[in-house]
Amino acid sequence: MNVKALFGAGLLAASLSTTGIAQAAPEPYALDMAHSAVVFNVNHLGFSNMFGRFDKFEGDLSFDADNIENSSVNISIDTESVNTFHGKRNEHLASPDFFNAAEFPEMTFESTKITKTGDNTAKLEGDLTLLGVTKPVTLDLVVNKVGPHPFNKQPLAGFTATGTVKRSEFGMNYGLPAISDEINLQIDVEATPK
């Protein structure tokens, strides 16, 4: 399956420098998949927090190093690639009870707005589509570092986006309320100019 680009929307995209003057136009950046991850955790019966990740995802990033608010990002996640490091649970999560990967093979996020909130922070707004339902979500974005790679000296940008999504809003109701409705999401990305 071709996993396309859409999910963390603007989750990466920009260097939050403080200049208010528009200078450089946004440039296309490619995600470094060896140093990027989409992870989540959910409370299980009140006893523990179960952690997981998606092994397959792709994304497109438009990055304005002078004004993060001009940046954008789209990410697409292969729902069948959900991995909680337990085979039978992974199969259940891919089933119609949860992600229904056979019918909805992709979960996507497309950024709609980025609002700078500090020297290296922003609010990343976008549309999340899961199980055929699209809802607006807001993620907290941190620009970890923008600069040359210490080894090859090529431009590099790193971002972390975090937020909480209510799965019931997308029709994922299995196990509620014992299995928490709230899913804590974290997306970490490194990206380089194309």
TrEMBL record:
Domain Lipid/polyisoprenoid-binding YceI-like: residue ranges: 28-192
Signal peptide: 1-24
Keyword Signal among UniProt keywords: yes
Keywords from the UniProt entry: Signal
Pfam families in UniProt: YceI (PF04264)
Gene3D superfamilies named in the record: Lipid/polyisoprenoid-binding, YceI-like
Source organism superkingdom: Bacteria
UniProt entry tagged with the keyword Signal: yes
Protein's name in the database: Polyisoprenoid-binding protein
Species this chain originates from: Marinobacterium zhoushanense
